[in-house]
Design goal:
With 283 residues, this protein is an alpha/beta fold. The protein has helices spanning 63-73, 108-117, 128-138, 152-160, 167-172, 196-204, 227-236, 249-258; strands at residues 6-15, 18-27, 30-40, 45-58, 83-88, 98-104, 150-151, 176-181, 187-193, 218-221, 240-243, 261-267, 270-275, 280-281. It has a six-stranded mixed sheet with strand order 9-8-10-11-12-13, with helices on both faces. The chain has a four-stranded mixed sheet with strand order 4-3-6-5, covered by helices on one side. Strands 1-2 form a two-stranded antiparallel sheet. Strand 12 (261-267) and strand 13 form a beta hairpin. Helix 7 packs parallel to helix 8. The model is unreliable at 119-127 (pLDDT under 50).
């Protein structure tokens, strides 16, 4: 566990009318600034940069995989080969929160397109049809359309064992998690963050997942399912997304368009299937 992700703070606990002073562990939230630098590899020169491609709040730790996952999900990079270097800006006082990402020049137009169409998560007034068309233009891996390969009992095991693997959450109660399992329910990777989108970006940007995710792997979230969460899974080529929380209508529409299995309200040996039930088996 990254020590920077948790901080000890003082608190007063009230039980009935009794007051007790004690320490508590609280999850850390800090800003992350991503600066993109585009390199002409043939001439070895910088052709352009975007000083603040993204500024987000996140839990410190696993910043590199968070950045890779974000850029991959936004369609800026197509493979890890597009990334020349990722490093902290050593010239900044807040160097732990300011990262420089050098990319091949081919990524420049995709970055500008991504930045111009970027909309705050869970905002209002978004046209679902336009979003789904934009995702088609951005491109995605073809999902595995095989049927009857994921058992109901395996889903129950994945969900029931999720909380025991959340180290930061067990200390603070303040993080979301995104986990990757294979079709037998074996855990492959798990990442935590105060932001649910960040947790999934960390997972999809990790070595265990990026360019290695199998079509029959399964992503399990501790959060609800919004459109952006489905979008990230679609781009990765993973065909099953499970969540403890609820789905949105737009998330279901995107899943239907790209044939992603969406399962929500997964808890207490029960869940609801909103699309893609053909992948499940009761064996």
């Amino acid at each position: 566990m990254n020590i920077k992700a948790v901080k000890h703070v003082n608190k007063i606990k009230v039980k009935n009318t009794a007051l007790s002073r004690m320490q508590d562990r609280v999850v850390v939230e800090a800003p992350l600034q991503i600066e993109l630098i585009f390199i002409d590899c043939l001439r070895n020169v910088v052709i352009e940069s975007i000083a603040s491609y993204a500024i987000m709040m996140r839990t410190p730790g696993d910043d590199q995989v968070l950045i890779i996952g974000l850029l991959y999900g936004q369609g800026v990079i197509k493979s890890i080969d597009d990334v020349i270097e990722i490093c902290r800006d050593e010239h900044e006082d807040s160097k732990e929160n300011h990262w420089l990402v050098s990319l091949k020049s081919d990524c420049l137009s995709r970055a500008k397109s991504s930045q111009s169409t970027h909309t705050s998560y869970s905002s209002c007034g978004i046209c679902g049809t336009s979003f789904i068309k934009a995702l088609e233009i951005k491109g995605s891996h073809a999902v595995d359309n095989d049927t009857h390969w994921l058992s109901i009992n395996t889903i129950h095991r994945m969900v029931s064992g999720l909380s025991s693997r959340q180290d930061i959450f067990s200390q603070t109660g303040g993080t979301h998690c995104a986990a990757l399992f294979n079709q037998e329910g074996k855990p492959i990777a798990l990442y935590e963050d105060i932001g649910r989108h960040n947790a999934l970006d960390k997972l999809l940007g990790s070595r265990q997942t990026f360019n290695n995710a199998h079509g029959k792997d399964v992503v399990v979230l501790s959060s609800r399912i919004s459109y952006e969460m489905v979008q990230k899974v679609i781009v990765s080529g993973i065909s099953v997304l499970i969540a403890i929380g609820a789905p949105s209508v737009l998330a279901i529409q995107a899943a239907q368009r790209f044939n992603i299995t969406v399962i929500a309200f997964a808890r207490d040996n029960s869940f609801s299937i909103y699309h893609g039930e053909s992948r499940l088996t009761d064996k």
